[in-house]
Amino acid sequence: MSGDGADADLRLAVTGAGGRMGREVIEAAADREGVAVAVAVNRTPTDPVAGVAVEDADRIDELLGAAEPDALVDFTGPASAVAYAEACADAGVPMVTGTTGFADAQLDGLRAASESVPVLKASNFARGVAALRRAVREAAAALPGYDVELTETHHNAKRDAPSGTAKSLLDDVESVRDDLDRRVHGREGEAPRESDEIGVHARRAGDVTGEHEVLLAGNRETLELTHRAGDRGVFAEGALDAADWLAARAPGWYGFGDVLDAGSAGATGE
Ligand SMILES: NC(=O)C1=CN([C@@H]2O[C@H](COP(=O)(O)OP(=O)(O)OC[C@H]3O[C@@H](n4cnc5c(N)ncnc54)[C@H](OP(=O)(O)O)[C@@H]3O)[C@@H](O)[C@H]2O)C=CC1
Ligand SMILES: O=C(O)C1=N[C@H](C(=O)O)C[C@H](O)C1
Questions:
Q1: Do 121 and 253 fall within a single domain?
Q2: Which parts of the chain are coiled coil (predicted)?
Q3: Residue 214: which of 136, 122, 127 has the closest Cα?
């Protein structure tokens, strides 16, 4: 393969290239046959990652125009993800974003870009989480009246809380349980539990990659459904699968479930 990946099957742009996930995506791409990183950018100057030079993020428009990558993979922050989506729309580049913590207005910005190019947003690219989401929908529907509490644990540098995955799981529970429509974030003092609550607990500690547990409890039994990510490579692999799939799609709004459905894995939803 040539240095700029001109003969690769899938040529990527990666934003946040100096971040935990950006580095992981570049390293996973380097290990994958037929995939090359044609553009990598970061807000602050960063040494090359896996031999890929990291450019100033302010040059993104010029770099996308010159390299014409097949897709851009973004793991940054909500404001920058929206700005990169606008750059993708202008350059005609499909965008995969795993960034979490968007406000509603920022989501509108992503959706606006999806009118021009394919945009795939997923709060979690682990296949196990896709399976967890299916299991949670099934369990919550099968156990009417049971209390539901969600606990997520992440490393101490995570910015947003609760996690994007936690919010997706809460959406899943609420989609099958009309009686649960109030998210209660932690409890303190006089706080008796009401029947319409879903308790949400966000823990931040050490270097935990990411854990999500959904507890369903009746009066004489409990069911716990838990996913633990072993390392960030699992997210990077899923994001590369998503980029590969998205590169051939029409403009629109997509989720990781669409990628897995296409591969007959049977997942649905974001
Ligand atoms: N969907 C999924 O499967 C996963 C999603 N995530 C999400 O991905 C995102 C990034 O996580 P992680 O890699 O751990 O975070 P890091 O803090 O390690 O990296 C963030 C990166 O984004 C850049 N960045 C942040 N804000 C801006 C901005 N305003 N403008 C330009 N660049 C910016 C940072 O640049 P700089 O170096 O200059 O600070 C850095 O390169 C988070 O939202 C996280 O929740 C994480 C793991 C899996
Ligand atoms: O910030 C992280 O690290 C992670 N963020 C995602 C989220 O907010 O759900 C996914 C994963 O849990 C790791």
A1: yes
A2: none
A3: 136
Nearest atom in ligand 1 to 126's CA: 3
Q: Give the tokens for residue 183.
A: 């998210």
Q: Do residue 114 and residue 27 come from a single domain?
A: yes
CATH of the domain at 220: 3.30.360.10
pLDDT digits (tens, 9 = 90+) for 137-182: 999 999 999 999 999 999 999 999 999 999 999 999 999 999 999 9
Range of the domain at 32: 10-125+232-262
Residues with a CB atom less than 6 Å from ligand 1? 16, 18-22, 42-44, 57, 75-77, 79-80, 98-101, 122-125, 160, 164, 235
**Which ligand has the shortest distance to the CA of 166?**
2
Residue 6 is predicted with a pLDDT of: 84
